[in-house]
Amino acid sequence: MKPTAARFLHQSVVEVERKFLCNPGSRDCFNTNHGEPAFRVLEYLGRRTFEDTYYDRNGVLSSHGVWVRQRSGRWQAKVRLGGDYTNSQFRELSKQHDIAQVIRQYNLEADSSSNDFGLQKSAQYTTTRDMWKADNRFEIVLDTTDFGHSVGEVELQQETETSGDRELLLAVRQAVAKDMDRQIEAFMQQYSWAFPPGKPVGKLSAYFAWKRKLDGPGLPS
């Protein structure tokens, strides 16, 4: 009998988030938990401040749904699995070697030992974040940036472990992400009093809009 070949397991983190509008009363809304129905469990996790610096090269990565950033000095990459700018589904990477591999998939050179993977800085801002854990599972955050934008998010994260080729890995991650997104949608509908209707704008989109306004129209050539 021939020995069975060992199957390599690929581990990854899938993150799904749905953004929502927030206003000056949103923090009190979550701190008091007086809506109907009230969250079964709602734990305040505190406040933290962090700086995000995003990197790209001529928009190649972002045009393919890849965002590379340093958050308070730690490298991260998010690779889109589905959704849009409001309801996002990502595979999240934190090892520089893995991030460099993703960058190279788009015909860009990337040195994992360099300070910036050979990329160019595209955005930089600071965020103050308040965090809650709802019903022992869903993370709710309220973000306010140093350029004056505020937005809320409901997030879930899940580790996946799968063997197979690249197409199978992608299919498994996308299926997991879609299921997580359905759970977040149901959660937000159940507690709709806490999540105002309307179309929220993510921090990065708001940053670029703010930057264009700040820079003003270009000089005539």
What attributes characterize this protein structure?
8-stranded antiparallel barrel, globular, disordered N terminus, 221 residues
What this model shows, in words?
The chain is built from five helices and eight strands, in the order βαβαβββαβββαα. The protein is of the alpha+beta class. It has an eight-stranded antiparallel barrel, surrounded by four helices. β4 and β5 form a beta hairpin.
Write the topology of this structure.
Blueprint: E1 10-20, H1 26-32, E2 42-56, H2 60-63, E3 66-71, E4 74-83, E5 87-93, H3 96-104, E6 120-134, E7 138-145, E8 150-162, H4 166-190, H5 203-215
Antiparallel strand pairs: 1-5, 1-8, 2-3, 2-6, 3-4, 4-5, 6-7, 7-8
Separation, N- and C-terminal Cα atoms: 76 Å
Order of helices and strands: EHEHEEEHEEEHH
What percent of residues are in strands?
Answer: 35-45%
Largest sheet: 8 strands, antiparallel, barrel
In short:
The chain has 221 residues and is an alpha+beta fold. It has helices at residues 26-32, 60-63, 96-104, 166-190, 203-215, and strands at 10-20, 42-56, 66-71, 74-83, 87-93, 120-134, 138-145, 150-162.
